[in-house]
Amino acid sequence: MTDINDLEKALGVTFVQPALLEEALVHSSYINENPDNNLRNNERLEFIGDAVLGLIIAEKIYTEMPDLTEGQMTKARSTLVKGDTLARIAGEIGLGDYLFMGKGEEATGGRTKVPNLEGAMEAVIAAIYLDQGIYAAKVVVSNIFREEWQKLVSQGVEEDYKSMLQEITQAKYQSVPMYKLIGEEGPDHDKKFTVDVSVKGKWFGTGEGKSKKVAETEAAKAALRAFGEDFT
């Protein structure tokens, strides 16, 4: 087990109640294999951390990205707090090395699994919040999310046209859009795909792109334009 003091240094925090940080690092598999141990797993802290992190990120987006719409703010927040992002940040500070984990879970790569790292990262944020308050939690989150935040600011927030279209069709038709590949041409290194999108058998748009995903997005954009004009 790596020295927990090194984790405090990586986080920039010295805990008043080290037991909180210790609890944040206990995976349920450890308890299962060590039932007589007095430690608790980190799932309750994970619950708090999810809420604390969501609040901190939401406030940061509201304050520092004033031109975003509500929908764009939601998209930005989900980008920053999703499991892959949290696991990547956890990996950067080596969080997996500090986890108390059952031998079975560890043998199957548990220290690098996204759900384990995501949960531990949220639990650690909760431990900081409970130990030192929201301001300390904000400072740590700002520091460890700095690279992801800069990436978000530089790249901007993409509108999720497929999700937008699905919300509309579910509300209006109680149905989801269907995407159909109708064309594929060009050599492997320069393909062009063409996709149609329909709702309940009615065509609403066509899109083209260098991948099926891009073509579907373009088709969804076309359908959204059709919705504004004639989506009856």
CATH homologous superfamily caption of the largest domain: Ribonuclease III domain
Structure classification: mainly alpha
Q: Averaging pLDDT over every residue, what do you get?
A: 90
Strand order of the largest sheet: 1-2-3
| Residues in helix, % | 55-70%
Order of helices and strands: HHHHHHHHHHHEEEH
Proper CATH architecture of the largest domain: Orthogonal Bundle
Q: How many angstroms separate the termini?
A: 62 Å
CATH hierarchy, class of the largest domain: Mainly Alpha
Instruction: Please summarize the sheet with the most strands.
Output: 3 strands, antiparallel
Low-confidence stretches: none
Classify the beta-strand content into a percent band. Answer: 5-15%
Query: And the CATH topology of the largest domain?
Result: Ribonuclease iii, N-terminal Endonuclease Domain, Chain A
Number of domains: 2
Question: Which descriptors would you attach to this protein?
Answer:
Ribonuclease iii, N-terminal Endonuclease Domain, Chain A, 2 domains, mainly alpha, 232 residues, 10% strand, Double Stranded RNA Binding Domain, 12 helices
Structure description:
The longest helix has 22 residues. The protein folds into two domains: 152 residues, Ribonuclease III domain (Ribonuclease iii, N-terminal Endonuclease Domain, Chain A); 70 residues, 2-Layer Sandwich (Double Stranded RNA Binding Domain), CATH 3.30.160. β1 and β2 form a beta hairpin. α2 packs antiparallel against α8, α6 packs across α8 and α11 crosses α12. The protein contains twelve helices and three strands. Helices cover 61% and strands 10% of the residues. The protein has 232 residues and is mostly helical. A three-stranded antiparallel beta sheet has the order 1-2-3.
